[in-house]
Amino acid sequence: MKVGIIGAGIAGLSCAHFLERNGVFSHVYERNHRIGNLFTYGEIVLNLMTRPYDSLEIMNRMGISLQPLSTLKRLVIKSPKNKVEIKGKLGYIFERGQGENSVENQIAKNLTSKIFFNINANYESLMKEYDHVVIATGNSMMAKSITEWENIVSASIKGGIAIGNFEPDTVYVWFDRSYANSGFGYLVPLGPKKASLVLVVTYSLKEEVENMWQEFLSKEKINFSMVETFESELEIGMPRHRSIGKVYLVGNAGGFLDSAFGFGLINSMMSSFYCSFSIVKGYNYEEKVLNLQKKLNNLRKIRERMDTGTNEDIERLIGLMKNPLVKTLVYNTNIDIFSYLPFFMKFGTKKPGKKPGL
Ligand SMILES: Cc1cc2nc3c(=O)[nH]c(=O)nc-3n(C[C@H](O)[C@H](O)[C@H](O)COP(=O)(O)OP(=O)(O)OC[C@H]3O[C@@H](n4cnc5c(N)ncnc54)[C@H](O)[C@@H]3O)c2cc1C
After folding, report:
1. Least confident stretch, 18-22, 55-59, 204-208, 309-313
2. 255 CB burial (10 A radius; 0-12, 13-18, 19+)
3. Ligand 1: distance of its center to the CA of 160 in Å?
4. 346: Cβ contacts below 8 Å, ≥ 6 apart
5. Cα–Cα distance between 183 and 180 in angstroms, integer?
6. Fewer Cβ neighbours under 10 Å: the N or C end of the chain?
7. How far apart are CA 335 and CA 42, in angstroms?
8. pLDDT, tens digit (0-9, with 9 covering 90-100), for 179-197
9. Residue 286 CB contacts under 8 Å (≥ 6 apart), including other chains
10. pLDDT value, residue 43
11. Rounded CA gap, 116 and 119, in Å?
12. Is the CB of 183 within 6 Å of ligand 1?
């Protein structure tokens, strides 16, 4: 069986990995000259998102064994007037990019399948050569040419490496509509001396992000020296179909990036896991990802609330999160809270109004 995979990112590489575990050695095509995003940044996986399992356990269950940078034990969430601190075994921090221990390089290290670099692949030409083609391009461009695509949220991102002193197990998140709209800023430590500082501004023009970034730094009194700064655009949406004949959409290209907070690392792996089984065993891919879709739908409801909420709504939610009972329920139980969160958010925020800026 011949399988061609477009994109050597998280989804493409893990698909190749899962296929190998089933005895199929694929060809992976990558447009860049090497593996990994050009800029380094930290990503987190929250156990909250993978309940009832621990995030590493879920990867292990799929057959991927990864070494995180550290365990996430403290999450500090700030709004203009409020702050909540959550402690516990909350998840893990991973490095992304070209570093030896980045997630993509950790997966690639154990692959035998051939990766062809510097090839801007096209699914139509690969279809002539391969029995199955997997689109793992990390964006919607190719997906849009094969199926309908619904845009859910767009964001401009600015980030970089902050140099300073950091607690390796603590992540900070800032919500304030004045500089992020319905997005947020966050800091993920990459070690004791450097951290990834990122601002995600929703529904904004690319040109606006620099001003928002400056306002973010000044309002939150952040004055680390910054290196390796980057800007990027993110479009989160959903394809109408995820398998079209022998072509499969996985990872971000398959609409598996969550529209509320932009979590996509584990979803990318999971979509590739199901895709590999569909290729090898003939399972129905669309059916296999229904559970993932259900979670994405719940997170989409949260995104709708975030888009229509105000800073007062954020204050109320953070106030609610400070409640010890809520803290315990949300962070120290095994309940799949995302199934219930849209319901609770009805009480935490005002009724949705008109979507801003659209
Ligand atoms: C700044 C930022 C922070 C994030 N933080 C988090 C986080 O904290 N937690 C989390 O869970 N998720 C996070 N995410 C999301 C997560 O990174 C993505 O969901 C995940 O990387 C998606 O994997 P992918 O394989 O679909 O895409 P990518 O990892 O982007 O890989 C796509 C690959 O395809 C290649 N490619 C594209 N087109 C072609 C082509 N035509 N031919 C050949 N190759 C091609 C690209 O060069 C790239 O290597 C974050 C994303 C960003 C941008």
Report:
1. 204-208
2. buried
3. 17
4. none
5. 5
6. C
7. 27
8. 999 999 999 999 999 999 9
9. 241, 242, 243
10. 97
11. 7
12. no
Tracing tokens 């992540």 back to the chain, one arrives at 171
Cα 271–chain centre separation? 13
User: Longest C-alpha distance within the chain, in Å?
Assistant: 59
Q: Measuring CA to CA, how many Å separate 76 from each of 163, 188, 202, 222? A: 19, 11, 21, 15
Residue 43 CA, closest ligand 1 atom number: 8
Encoded amino acid at 23, one letter: G
Phi/psi of residue 237, each to 5°?
-160, -165
Residue 186 beta carbon below 6 angstroms from any ligand 1 atom: no
Q: Is 196 in the pocket of ligand 1 (CB under 6 A)?
A: no
Tell me how crowded residue 336 is: count the other CB atoms within 10 A of its CB.
15
CA 221 / ligand 1 centre spacing (Å) = 30
Token pair in block for residue 188: 């993920």
Q: Please indicate whether residue 328 or residue 110 has the higher confidence score (pLDDT).
A: 110
Q: What is the DSSP letter of 230?
A: E
Can you give the pLDDT at residue 326? 80
Q: Find all residues with CB under 8 Å of 224, minimum gap 6, and list them.
A: 162, 163, 164, 195, 197
In this predicted structure, what is the pLDDT of residue 338?
A: 67
Q: Which atom of ligand 1 is nearest to the CA of 32?
A: 47
AA letter at 243: S
Residue 28's DSSP bridge partners are: 5, 115
Instruction: Set out the domains of the chain in order of their start, with CATH numbers.
Output: 3-299 (3.50.50.60)
Does 352 have pLDDT greater than 80?
Answer: no
Bond before 52 cis per omega within 30 degrees? yes
Q: Which atom of ligand 1 is nearest to the CA of 49?
A: 11
- Dist. CA 257 → ligand 1 center (Å): 9
How buried is residue 305: exposed, middle or buried, by Cβ count under 10 Å (0-12/13-18/19+)?
buried
